Amino acid sequence: MFRYTPTTLQKLEQLFRESGFIVRYEKGTFKAGYCILFEKRVAVINKYFDTESRINSLLDMLNDINPDESKLSEKSLELLQHVKEAKVNA
Fold it and tell me: What are the residue ranges spanned by the domains of the chain?
């Protein structure tokens, strides 16, 4: 499965950046999610979430965005494959 560490969070953030998303952490009483604002793809996550919750939110969003694998670096592509395998095995 996944290790819920700041390094894993950074890898997921990088994957989102390579997919054309901006990852933002904002305060408020809302659930994490993503939205498209003026043709800019922005993933907004509650800044008060702990590392595990941030990772889980990004993983949930990853299922919805279907990143273009041709734009991803080798490391991001490996992470994406790992996410897909973990999803199948769950």
Answer: 6-84
Crossing angle of helices 6-18/74-89, nearest 10°? 110
pTM confidence score: 0.87
In this structure, the dihedral spanned by the alpha carbons of residues 77, 35, 61 and 27, taken in order and rounded to 10 degrees, is: 110
How distant is the alpha carbon of residue 53 from its chain centre? 11
The tens digit of pLDDT for each residue in 8-56 reads 999 999 999 999 999 999 887 766 666 666 678 888 888 888 999 899 9
Tell how far CA 37 is from the center of its chain: 17
Whether 41 contacts 21, CB under 8 Å: yes
3-state secondary structure of 2: coil
Which residue matches tokens 């949930």?
60
